[in-house]
Design brief:
Layout (H helix, E strand, L loop, with lengths): L1 H26 L1 H13 L17 H31 L5 H6 L2 H25 L11 H19 L8
Length: about 160
């Protein structure tokens, strides 16, 4: 039972994290908008870099990208909350039922991982050269987030001991 509650709590913690991230971006839209704008504009990467042609300058596209990020964060939060609820409800069920109840949480954790890995590390970091910016480099934060999400995902996806008995 403790392992089931532990897995539920870990998923709920990731749901809280994604919720607070999305909530902050929604209620204080202007706080992280400059980050997205500078990364997409590529105005702080190495001046002699050959990838400046990838920059996105139109403000409406920058806002659309930011809204997409907020949508992904919100969807991650919702799926993780629904997953945590499903896990909690199945905590006293047989092992197979509890294992099946993990699907929503796995979907949420996977979406979160993909948001920070693909969105921030791959697209922001590599395509837009965010790693070159001393001012607008979100790679260390994104890496912390995606590692935490992946660790919880691995822990959650493991079959519970009673399935092997």
């Amino acid at each position: 039972m403790i392992q089931r509650l532990s897995k539920t709590a870990c998923v709920a913690a990731m749901a809280l994290f994604a919720s607070l991230t999305a909530f902050g971006n929604i209620t204080d839209y202007g706080a992280n908008l400059p980050f997205v704008q500078h990364v997409l504009a590529m105005d702080t990467i190495f001046p002699d870099s050959a990838i400046h042609y990838r920059a996105i300058q139109p403000p409406w596209l920058q806002h659309a990208a930011y809204l997409a990020i907020i949508l992904l964060e919100s969807a991650t939060a919702l799926l993780c909350w629904l997953g945590a609820i499903a896990l909690f409800r199945a905590r006293k069920a047989d092992a197979r039922a509890f294992h099946r109840s993990k699907n929503m949480a796995i979907a949420g954790l996977t979406l979160g991982f993909l948001t920070w890995q693909v969105g921030f590390m791959s697209i922001g970091g590599e395509w837009f050269g965010m790693w070159m910016s001393e001012t607008w480099n979100g790679i260390p934060s994104a890496f912390r987030f995606l590692c935490t999400l992946m660790l919880v995902l691995i822990y959650l996806a493991q079959k519970d001991g009673e399935l092997n008995e």
